[in-house]
UniProtKB/TrEMBL annotation:
GO terms for MF: scavenger receptor activity
KW Nucleotide-binding (keyword) present: no
Entry-linked InterPro entries: FN3_dom, FN3_sf, Ig-like_fold, MEGF10/SREC1/2-like
Protein name: Fibronectin type-III domain-containing protein
Source species of the chain: Ooceraea biroi
Length: 476
């Protein structure tokens, strides 16, 4: 047998060999197979053409030769081989009889059923191949080796038996898997996939790989891990507060590594202030040696309450496809600040509350840190109970004049300042029921009741008499 290897053009001869028939005796009387390796390196985009020419050393009325098991050697340092078998179907179906075939080793033979019926219970130990590839170590490409994109109507045979490519069933592997089933023999059930349909198909996962077509279902307490959405992790614990300063907060979250994360688990933190600002930290990868996740927040405002939560998500190795994220409960922390003192002023119908800021004191507590409570002395119900966003603050509702109030300033349950103050006096209302009782000669008796609203302490009354008429007496 002459073997010649040409370049892709077929014009340049690269290698040539002459293979002679085996001289080793075969006790079984069957022809013996021989092996030959052609060593020639090619690039990824190059290819070579092989020409085989059979020759006989002597005349024969019944010559026999065959070529089979043509293999493409893998790249250097790779131990896999790709076996390519090309065939042409001339009829739709033919039931071949059992035949005796010789193996590649001497004195060994076995019966191969050429009409190997497909079995759905064949157990395969090979890895799950990506879509468009099948066979041992996923070395066969459906499009180039099986001439369709999904290997439909092709049977895969192993020592354990024959089965359909993943996603197909039936005697000749022409039927797709039933709804929400996938894989070899359609034995796998789709995971916790989202019910949202991206296509008209009723399936929620890919029939070949089992990957959820619209991602995993959303659950507030459970994060399903794509693409199969069968593995999951529970809601993380709320962050624990490590340290709190004037402008910093440090937190940590315990984490327990599981093999199914495979280095694809990521985490981040959310921090939201009572002033309405919300920020996210960047996503970071969780590694196998981690037992807790630590985050330090800086450049915060002093005396402000912050809510902090931890979130997890799972991404693929390229970080271009990620799951929904699952969030822990919130943990509250307040940055440290330095409180100040207050001063009170009063008017007839209002009170003015101001703080005494010391410019030399750093990190003063903001106005929102304080709560103001104003109540009339002797009454239990507060007239005012509120927080403010600035000082000085004027209690603007019309307060009764010459009335004593207690002003208390607190933070949470702690009293920061408390003092009594009274609104100023103003003119009282008119006296009631003023009248004269009798008037004799030069004496007049006047009586009245005090005003209903004295608006202060009445120390004396002043009476002014004005002559309205003068009557003259005529004496005869």
């Amino acid at each position: 047998m002459d073997i010649v290897l040409y370049d892709r053009t077929g014009n340049i001869e690269l290698k040539s060999f002459l293979v002679k028939g085996s001289t080793k005796a075969a006790s079984h009387g069957l022809p013996s197979w021989q092996f030959i390796t052609i060593k020639h390196s090619t690039t990824t985009y190059d290819r070579a053409t092989m020409k085989l020419t059979s020759k006989l050393n002597s005349r024969s009325s019944d010559p026999l030769w065959a070529v089979a098991n043509v293999r493409q050697c893998p790249r250097r340092n790779v131990s896999f081989r790709k076996s390519v078998l090309l065939s042409t179907r001339l009829s739709t179906w033919y039931d071949w009889p059992n035949v005796m075939c010789q193996k590649l080793f001497y004195e060994n033979s076995s019966v191969v059923n050429a009409a190997s019926y497909v079995q759905s219970y064949v157990e395969l130990n090979n890895v799950v191949c990506p879509e468009g590839r099948i066979g041992p170590n996923c070395l066969l490409y459906c499009e180039s080796d099986a001439y369709n994109y999904n290997c439909k109507e092709h049977v895969i045979c192993y020592e354990e038996g024959c089965t359909c490519p993943p996603g197909f069933r039936g005697e000749n592997c022409a039927l797709s898997c039933e709804k929400n089933r996938y894989g070899y023999g359609c034995n796998q059930i789709c995971g916790s996939c989202s019910k949202y349909r991206m296509t008209s198909s009723p399936d929620t996962c890919n029939k070949l790989t089992g990957a959820c077509t619209a991602g995993c279902t959303y659950d507030e307490y459970t994060l399903y891990i794509p693409p199969l959405c069968k593995m999951y992790m529970y809601k993380p614990e709320p962050p624990k507060i490590d340290t709190v300063g004037n402008t910093t907060i440090q937190v940590n979250v315990p984490v327990e590594w599981k093999d199914e994360y495979k280095g694809l688990l990521e985490y981040a933190f959310i921090i939201s202030s009572s002033t309405g600002n919300t920020n996210y930290t960047g996503w970071k990868r969780v590694f196998q040696n981690m037992t807790e996740l630590t985050e330090r927040f800086t450049n915060l405002e002093s005396g402000v309450i912050y809510n902090i939560a931890c979130i997890f998500r799972v991404c693929n190795q390229y970080d271009n496809m990620c799951s929904n994220y699952i969030q822990s409960n919130w943990r509250t922390a307040e940055t440290v600040c330095n409180r100040t003192d207050f001063v009170l002023e009063s008017e007839e119908h209002s009170l003015l509350i101001d703080w005494k800021l010391d410019p030399k004191q750093p990190f003063p507590c903001p106005a929102t840190w304080y709560r103001i409570i104003v109540q009339v002395i002797g009454k239990r119900t507060p007239l005012l109970n509120t927080t403010v966003n600035h000082f000085p603050y004027k209690v603007s509702q019309k307060l009764p004049s010459y009335t004593s109030f207690t002003v208390t300033i607190v933070h949470e349950a702690k009293i920061i300042f408390s003092d009594d103050i009274r609104t100023l006096e103003e003119a009282p209302s008119i006296v009631l029921n003023a009248r004269s009782l009798n008037a004799f000669d030069r004496n007049v008796t006047l009586v009245w009741k005090p005003p209903r609203e004295p608006n202060g302490m009445i120390k004396k009354y002043e009476v002014t008499l004005q002559v309205m008429h003068i009557y003259k007496l005529k004496i005869d």
